[in-house]
Amino acid sequence: MAVCAVDISGVEKTYRGRVQALRGVSLQVPEGSIFGLLGPNGAGKSTLVKILTTIIRPTRCRGSLLGNPVGHKPTLRKVGYLPEHSRFPAYLTGRQVIGYAAGLGGVRVTSEEVDDLLDLVGMSGGAEDRAIKTYSKGMVQRIGLAQALVNSPRLVILDEPTDGVDPEGRYHMRNILQKLRDDGVTVFVNSHLLGELETLCDSIAILKEGQVVRQGALSDLTAGSRGFQVAVEGSLPEEAASRIRGLGH
Known about the structure:
Blueprint: E1 4-15, E2 19-30, E3 34-38, H1 45-52, E4 60-65, E5 68-69, H2 73-76, E6 79-82, H3 94-104, H4 111-120, H5 137-148, E7 155-159, H6 167-182, E8 186-191, H7 194-200, E9 203-208, E10 211-217, H8 218-223, H9 238-246
């Protein structure tokens, strides 16, 4: 059986005794994989992420993170986190944000290590020395990912990392996350974008109204899905018809 970086069961969260955001969530994330948590806005995805990172307390939770109980403080030093809405001081440069994050986490980094992180996320060549307030949303997300990696984590948790990012930025983000997986890092991605997770993840869990309704490898989840037949009436240009025939349908 595969070793799990995240293994939780029966997670519940009720706000103010009335609003039940999570209702017995159980899921497993294999170590060294890219895992996607999929669901519509309001499904409880961000609540679960904040429980895993100890930002909020669960009403009930059993399980482990990197082999230790959820909430184990020393384990969090091995976890990188990119929140849904990054709020970096606008006057800092991208390079300074990475140093700032390292200082908060008690991590010592050399200028060469910072340069390596900037290269990894595609923020070298001058942009790293500009103030955050001049950045696009995609640039902020790249710097956010760099600061999440400053502690050389074994597990990276990303909350809507491509939200508001243009297609080119999403493509670049996917390449970075796949490289992290290839280097043995476990990547946990929370998103409401099925297309993003479908092209990125090894396995996913679908969260709806605070409950996991499906979980598993993408190939298994889509194996029993129904197909659709589309009929086109009328004539088509020969080139288009030839391409359709070439698809084998």
